[in-house]
From TrEMBL:
Pfam families: DUF3263. This is DUF3263 domain-containing protein. It comes from the Bacteria.
Length: 96
């Protein structure tokens, strides 16, 4: 398994209430992906789970207060992206 950037790279103290896996997920989400499919492949290799399951965990994680304390900029960005996707799905359902 490839090493991930440390959750402490942001200069913030890690929060004891987050698991090691949750800190790894936050570190992983800080990365940017240039090619389509590359992130999904990395999820399978690094976390040994499907991208669907991974994103379920991400959505639960970004609602945690502890995650906001560890990396507020990242969590806010992920929440904005999630809200945008929810609005787009809602608009498709209502035909707007």
């Amino acid at each position: 398994m490839r090493a991930l950037p440390s959750a402490d790279d942001s200069g913030e103290e890690s929060v004891e209430d987050l698991t090691a896996r949750e800190r790894e997920i936050l570190a992983f989400e800080r990365q940017w992906w240039k090619y389509a499919g590359a992130k999904e492949q990395a999820i399978r290799e690094l976390f040994e789970m499907s991208p669907t399951r991974y994103y379920q965990l991400v959505n639960r994680l970004i609602d945690k207060r502890e995650a906001m304390r560890v990396d507020p900029m990242l969590v806010k960005r992920l929440r904005r992206l999630r809200s945008g996707r929810q609005r787009a799905r809602s608009a498709r359902r209502t035909g707007r």
